[in-house]
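Q: What changes when zinc ion is included in the input?
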Amino acid sequence: MSVTCTEVLKLIPLYVDGELDALRIDEVERHVSDCPECLGQLEMLQRLSQAVRAQYDYQPLPDSVLARIEAATVRPLRAHPVRWFVPFAAGLAIGAAAIWMVVPGLVRKDRFAQQLVSSHVRSLMLNNLVDVPSSDRHTVKPWFQGKLSFSPTVPDLAKQGFPLLGGRLEYLEERPAAALVYRRNRHIINVFVTDNPVFGLSEVDSAGFHVRHFRFQGLEYWAVSEVSEPDLKEFEEAFVASGA
Amino acid sequence: MALSLKAVQDAKFKRVVMPYVEYGFNLALSLLQNRSDAEDAIQEASVKAYQSVWQLRGEDSRAWFLRIVRNECMNILRTRSQARGKELSFDDEIEVVDQRTPNPVEVAEGNWTRAAMNEAIGKLSIGLREVLVLREIEGLSYQQIAEVTGTPIGTVMSRLSRARTALLNQLSGGETCP
Ligand SMILES: [Zn+2]
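A: The predicted holo structure follows.
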């Protein structure tokens, strides 16, 4: 055994928090596979971490507070109040391009990643998150039939903490694509699905958004969200594990 | 097709800050443990973020915004403790934390309820509760937590570890610290 229990016990919190590199992850996993004491510690911390997330008294932002914030910041001076995403919607297509040009440092070299993030943001802003609102995979999956030349996998991930909200049709690189919409707490995860294998990107961060790419059963999947990186990784793992 | 600066500022704020306002609200709730104070803090922090959104240059906007929220909460807490004639203290040494080593078997058998969990989190001192919430609920990395709280990463790790130990002891043993 190359690492001692003392060393592993120090690594376990970092393992649970997704702070270790692949080499260290491997060390920890090999050690706990035949050390019941360290495995016990690891399972205990993992259970606590999951329980805190699942049971935490997370509060949605009240509409009244959101309205106050909008009024104090972005709301244009108008006689009639409008939801903040409505005026924004019109300007977004131009706006998104313009912002990337105006603000240095936000420019992403990867045009495709930019397209994914824009689609994600647009889906949040325009309130057109789903064309087929349903938490039932047996409703969402057939809805794409006849609209796409392929059939995306739509796993039910509610038990893993990612309830399905529905799906919608998207266009990526001028080809129809599926967007599957999941939720983690109050945050949206868009999963874009195409049968177009030309893009090799794996993980991209863009101004607070994370993008993860995975290939599954012959199709290309990109998960885009503002949830944390470990959460998005967890989502990908849950998706692949239960999507079969 | 000229965009006014205000339009770009609005668009940027919506894109890089708005997605995190609800996270910020929950951070404020956990720090202040008072709904109306948390509403004030998130509003004030949002206005400050809006005014300085130009300073963001492709850096991590979530950590940036949460730091603003956190500072706002600290101002409120400072005012509160001044009103009570006490200094706001973050000193770890004065925190009484139950540091018995939790027993994995007790933990595995324990049936943790939602109420017990939230009560246990609420009992943590602010310094410990803050890192726990930033890690588990806000999903930040150690490095991001260090940036938000302005503490070294080693302190983040030790506080997180002590927060978890205290939670485990509360949840499994039911023995509470004084
Ligand atoms: Zn061991």
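Observations recorded in class: The pocket of zinc ion is lined by residues A 5, 8, 31, 35, 37-38 (CB under 6 Å).
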